[in-house]
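USER: Study each token:
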Amino acid sequence: MKLIGKTILITGGASGIGLEAAKQFLSHGLKVIITGREQEKLNEIKKLYPGLITIKSDLTSAEDAKSLLNQVKECGGIDILYNNAGVMSRPANLGITNDSHFANATNEINTNYLGVIRLNNLFIDMLNSREEAAIINTTSILSYVPFILAPTYAASKVALRFYTESLRSHLLIIGSKIKIFELLPPVVATRMADNLDTQTITPTRLVQALIGGLTKDRYTIRVGNTKLVYLLSRLSPKLVFNILNSKKNARLLQK
């Protein structure tokens, strides 16, 4: 896929992986639009990177999503929709028997899964009108292995992975030219990974791998340890489960 000259919309672009992606895509000659829930943070980022277009939007809100579509149309539309936004409850709130578990789980499913479907449905006609267009869905290494510290987060990524594969096949059947990419990060060194007993990679390395996969039309982009976990999960699921769910991670549930 050719990237230079295209316009990309990155959800959750105000921090972490999304912000790193915005910076790298800018440097590769793309017009970049980012969304975030906090206007103050978006204002700060705009000062640092004047080339970015920032739009306040919460993808769990149907009204916000429709407003986002209209604002993107005013900017000339997009060629690439990068569904990066995601949430994971903090360890103190992750227990399946915790009183706040249902509320946290609802937020994770709405953001990580249903919000992606909402935006894809809204932007599909715009993307179909482009000569070359793409959707990038971010799943996770945890879509292959259950993680006791993030039960619903992992489940939401499994759902998104199955949906992504189905969407790719569906669009192929109806003759759409939209390319569907799936990015499967390992644990990335962002706030989500704080206190976790696991190896991490930097957002810089992850986005470099993403851009490499896009330019080579590699539709399933497994990065870092995700490649190994993918293989081991097919050969010995119990072994991989025990590796990811270490005793140190388990103790976080008792705090």
